[in-house]
Amino acid sequence: MRAEREARGIPRGVIVHPYTRTWSTAELALVGTMTDQNLAGKLGISRAQVAFRRKEMGIVPFDRKRKDRQWLDEEDAMLGVQIDMEVAVFLKISRLEVSKRRRALGKQKPDSS
User: Fold this and answer.
1) SS3 per residue for the chain
2) What is the Cα–Cα distance from 104 to 2, expressed in whole angstroms?
3) 47-57 vs 36-43: helix axis angle to the nearest 10?
4) Residue 12 belongs to some domain of the structure
5) CA–CA separation, 83 vs 100, rounded Å?
6) In angstroms, what CA-CA distances link 55 with 3, 31, 58, 75?
7) What phi and psi values does residue 11 have, to the nearest 5 degrees?
8) Short-list 108, 76, 109, 88, CA closest to 30
9) CA 92 centroid distance within chain
10) pLDDT value of position 94
11) 50/81 same-domain check
């Protein structure tokens, strides 16, 4: 164990949480858009890691049968003004749901310049 820790450059006494991992923006955008098991397979990590991150983000588990959520006027007003990922994190839903709603309303992506 000591040799492995030293080989990896992990200082003595440091405990690395098994779910600690850096997620890219693209990976975060996938959370909640498919089952935890499917996303885990796609990312090459455990289902528990995906579930942990999803819960941390406040996103409910993916359910193909779930009906579309009811959008408030204030939430619709955010679409096309803020980037989809920001709206998704704020509303604690997937980026896919946000972009789907934005397109349904005929709103363009906000200018990223």
Assistant:
1) CHHHHHHCCCCCCCCCCCCCCCCCHHHHHHCCCCCHHHHHHHHCCCHHHHHHHHHHHCCCCCCCCCCCCCCCHHHHHHECCECHHHHHHHHCCCHHHHHHHHHHCCCCCCCCC
2) 56
3) 120
4) no
5) 13
6) 35, 10, 5, 22
7) -60, 155
8) 88
9) 9
10) 82
11) no
Residue 92 tokens, joined: 């604690």
Task: Give the residue numbers spanning the domain of 77.
Answer: 67-107
The token pair at 56 is 């941390």
Per-position pLDDT tens, the chain of length 113: 778 777 877 777 656 566 677 889 889 888 888 899 999 999 999 999 999 999 988 888 887 766 667 889 999 999 999 999 999 888 888 888 899 899 999 999 887 65
CB 73 within 8 A of CB 63: no
> Is 15 domain-assigned?
no
